[in-house]
């Protein structure tokens, strides 16, 4: 029998010394925290209990009704009547409330536990100490809470109503019932709520990082394009896969990024200045302008309410189908309050503006008026770079010069990028003593360039040529002998082949990606505008008469995004199938050069025709016979038991896909293997690589099928069975691999 101590020592021996030390320190710290807070654990548990029970009953009494009202806020009466929220099991609601209450209770109790265990953390130097005054920490905390509330409010009063109305209308237009599972519906809402709350912290995060110089302000400023792409990428993860909702998520975040960038510039300027921010001095210097801005802001709000602005806004909201209305102040006192708040807000904005400009002017004076080394290359154009004094480039490092040139290239200013490189080569660190190097002998320059890899300009101009271009030149001179000697490992050989093929189609990537996106967008647009409903109705017409959809067979959406996700996945598969022949056409020369295939480029058309025939034939057979027969057989059991079937959209349509297009794909597998053998891929190679094929099929099934293990194996097993049939056919055709369909490969001397 293995004791716990032996097992623990065995596990410890499998870890390196640093990992064991870290784990031991963590266990010791956790034990010390528990001992330090032992007498106060009852108080911690009380906070946990308050959070758990309070959330449990708040969900039951108020939150569910509020979330339902938010879900239906922008739906028409007809759409709202078709939307229902169901519990799939008897325990769904109570378990969901318990899970949410558990999370809230832990979040509420954790700070209390840390506070009572602070003595143990102080002894180990883990308790944070900050010179920041308490009142500033309180302001930061209040700012975080305020921003979080504003982000969540935008989600619940703007984003969610429009999004749910759009998703429900899309499902109904496709002929499905938006019957949401309470678990999936709640997860969708809370995930997006968290995303809005976290995204709203962007101003504080960027300002704090810039002030502490963890991430310089210049990085946020220069990489705004990357930030915009990142915002849309995160929006694609959190929101439904349609442009409307992604834009509704991304636009406020991008606006926050702009505001945060301005705030980061203010605090960075104050941080780098030698004097502290003097708000009072700035107010005294510009009090008349600040007061004027406040008065103008107050007058604008007063004119908005008194000159019919409320009516214009409500008419605009009604024009876009919104039920929201703006209410005018019900009393003169309330109107005065609005006007006063508007004036104060405008004055505060003006104060911030003048404080920043005073700090900016101070920083310029302290840096030294006319100091050439303080010139920012980002503010210059190509002519300005060429005319800049040498001190600008003498103060730059090589990495900084390359970064500035890269930023110019990202902005589409190639001439400016080249000018930066030329000036750095001339006047920067590589320029030596600051002379242009004209007096140096050519031989010395060549020797120096050869030793250092050339000037930065040479290396920058060579950046467009890839490693595999140079590798190809080397291979022409000695690659065959290296391969003959067997110096290259098997993995390196695969990597080289794949990289060489990918590099060969790089110049055609725009056409390939363009075709892929065009087909994807066209297929998605057709499905989205009613194509999926037409397919659904046509397929139902092929089922037996005793299967009445209104009484027996229903297709429902358990998740708000379920219909859209299926449409995107199906469109991606269609785009991949259509793009594959074009990709093969452009990659064919590289495949021939690497001795992977033997046939010429025009054989692509033969391959496309053969595979298309197999796919279309299998699809016709599956759609007309196999799929209706399987679904009828499944439904008949429910009909005989007097049950009503409610298929999920994804399960129902993937079943149709697997029994229609899937038959064609299965038929194409042996055809493709025969074609590959005729192109030079040997039978023995395909038989020996069945493990790699299995992994690839599993990866395909994980990406393009519903995310569950059973479906992955339901896809993988038939495909691998078809692969086995293909191997059997090839075994017969090639006489056990002794005579492949392609001529034997010649061996170069």
UniProtKB/TrEMBL annotation:
The name this protein goes by in its record: Sec-independent protein translocase protein TatC
On assembly, the entry states: Forms a complex with TatA.
Identify the keywords attached in UniProt to this record, alphabetized. Cell membrane, Membrane, Protein transport, Translocation, Transmembrane, Transmembrane helix, Transport
Recite the lineage of the species.
Archaea, Methanobacteriati, Methanobacteriota, Stenosarchaea group, Halobacteria
Primary residence: membrane
Q: Name one GO molecular function term.
A: proton motive force dependent protein transmembrane transporter activity
Region Disordered: what ranges? 424-458
Q: Where in the cell is it found?
A: Cell membrane; Membrane
Q: According to its UniProt record, what is one Pfam family this protein matches?
A: TatC
> Mind listing the GO biological process terms from this record?
intracellular protein transmembrane transport; protein transport by the Tat complex
Transmembrane intervals: 44-63, 94-116, 137-168, 188-212, 247-264, 285-305, 335-356, 509-528, 570-591, 603-626, 652-676, 688-707, 713-735
**Coiled-coil intervals, chain numbering:** none
Tell me how this protein sits in the membrane.
Answer: Multi-pass membrane protein
Q: Which gene encodes it?
A: tatC
Q: What PANTHER family does the record point to?
A: SEC-INDEPENDENT PROTEIN TRANSLOCASE PROTEIN TATC, SEC-INDEPENDENT PROTEIN TRANSLOCASE PROTEIN TATC, CHLOROPLASTIC-RELATED
Q: Which InterPro entries does this UniProt record tie to the protein?
A: TatC
């Amino acid at each position: 029998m293995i004791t716990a101590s032996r097992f623990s020592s065995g596990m410890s021996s499998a870890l390196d010394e640093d990992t064991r030390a870290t784990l031991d320190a963590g266990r010791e710290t956790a034990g010390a925290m528990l001992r330090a807070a032992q007498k106060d654990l009852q108080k911690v548990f009380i906070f946990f209990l308050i959070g758990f029970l309070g959330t449990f009953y708040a969900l039951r009494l108020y939150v569910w009704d509020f979330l339902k009202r938010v879900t239906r806020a922008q739906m028409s009466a007809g759409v709202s009547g078709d939307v229902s929220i169901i519990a799939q099991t008897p325990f769904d609601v109570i378990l969901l409330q318990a899970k949410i209450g558990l999370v809230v209770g832990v979040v509420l109790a954790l700070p209390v536990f840390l506070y009572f265990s602070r003595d143990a953390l102080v002894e180990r130097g883990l308790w944070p100490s900050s010179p920041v005054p308490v009142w500033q920490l309180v302001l930061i905390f209040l700012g975080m809470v305020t921003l979080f509330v504003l982000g969540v409010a935008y989600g619940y009063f703007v984003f969610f109503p429009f999004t749910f109305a759009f998703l429900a209308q899309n499902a109904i237009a496709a002929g499905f019932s938006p019957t949401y599972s309470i678990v999936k519906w709640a997860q969708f809402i809370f995930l997006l709520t968290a995303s809005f709350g976290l995204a709203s912290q962007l101003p504080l995060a960027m300002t704090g990082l810039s002030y502490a110089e963890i991430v310089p302000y210049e990085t946020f400023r220069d990489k705004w394009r990357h930030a915009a792409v990142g915002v849309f990428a995160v929006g694609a993860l959190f929101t439904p896969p349609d442009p409307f909702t992604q834009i509704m998520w991304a636009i406020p975040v991008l606006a926050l990024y702009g505001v945060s960038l301005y705030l980061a510039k203010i605090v960075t300027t104050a941080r780098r200045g030698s004097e502290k921010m003097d708000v009072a001095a700035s107010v005294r210097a510009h009090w008349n302008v600040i007061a004027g801005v406040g008065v103008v802001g107050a007058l604008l709000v007063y004119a908005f309410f008194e000159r019919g602005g409320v009516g214009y806004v409500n008419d605009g909201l009604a024009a876009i189908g919104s039920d929201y209305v703006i209410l005018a102040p019900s009393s003169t006192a309330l109107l005065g309050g609005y006007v006063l708040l508007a004036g104060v807000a405008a004055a505060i904005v003006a104060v911030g503006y003048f404080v920043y400009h005073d700090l900016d002017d101070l920083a310029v004076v302290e840096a030294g008026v006319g100091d050439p080394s303080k010139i920012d290359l980002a503010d210059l154009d190509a002519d300005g770079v060429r005319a800049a004094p040498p001190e600008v480039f003498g103060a730059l490092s090589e990495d900084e010069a390359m970064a500035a040139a890269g930023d110019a290239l990202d902005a589409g200013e190639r001439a400016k990028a080249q000018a930066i490189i030329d000036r750095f080569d001339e006047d920067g660190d590589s320029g030596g003593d600051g002379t242009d190097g004209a007096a140096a002998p050519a031989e010395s320059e060549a020797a120096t360039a050869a030793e250092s890899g050339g000037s930065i300009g040479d290396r920058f101009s060579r950046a467009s040529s890839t490693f595999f271009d140079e590798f190809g030149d080397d291979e022409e001179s000695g690659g065959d002998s290296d391969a003959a000697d067997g110096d290259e490992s098997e993995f390196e050989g695969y990597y080289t082949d794949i990289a060489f093929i990918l590099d060969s189609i790089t110049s055609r990537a725009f056409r390939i990606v363009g075709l892929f996106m065009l087909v994807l967008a066209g297929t998605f647009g057709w499905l989205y505008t009613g194509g999926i409903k037409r397919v659904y109705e046509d397929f139902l017409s092929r089922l037996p008469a005793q299967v009445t959809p209104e009484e027996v067979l229903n297709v429902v959406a358990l998740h708000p995004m379920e219909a859209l996700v299926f449409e995107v996945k199906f469109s991606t598969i269609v785009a991949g199938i259509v793009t594959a022949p074009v990709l093969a056409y452009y990659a064919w020369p590289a495949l021939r050069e690497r001795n992977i295939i033997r046939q010429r480029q025009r054989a692509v058309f033969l391959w496309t025709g053969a595979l298309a025939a197999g796919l279309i034939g299998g699809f016709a057979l599956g759609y007309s016979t196999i799929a209706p027969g399987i679904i009828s057989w499944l439904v008949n059991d429910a009909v005989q038991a007097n049950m009503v079937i409610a298929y999920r959209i994804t399960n129902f349509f993937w079943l149709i896909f697997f029994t229609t297009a899937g038959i064609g794909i299965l038929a194409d597998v042996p055809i493709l293997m025969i074609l590959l053998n005729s192109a030079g891929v040997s039978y023995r190679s395909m038989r020996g690589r069945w493990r790699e094929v299995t992994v690839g099929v599993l990866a395909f099934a994980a990406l393009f099928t519903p995310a569950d293990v059973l479906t992955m194996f339901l896809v993988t097993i038939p495909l691998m069975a078809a692969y086995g049939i293909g191997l059997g056919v090839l075994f017969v055709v090639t006489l056990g691999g002794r005579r492949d369909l392609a001529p034997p490969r010649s061996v170069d001397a």
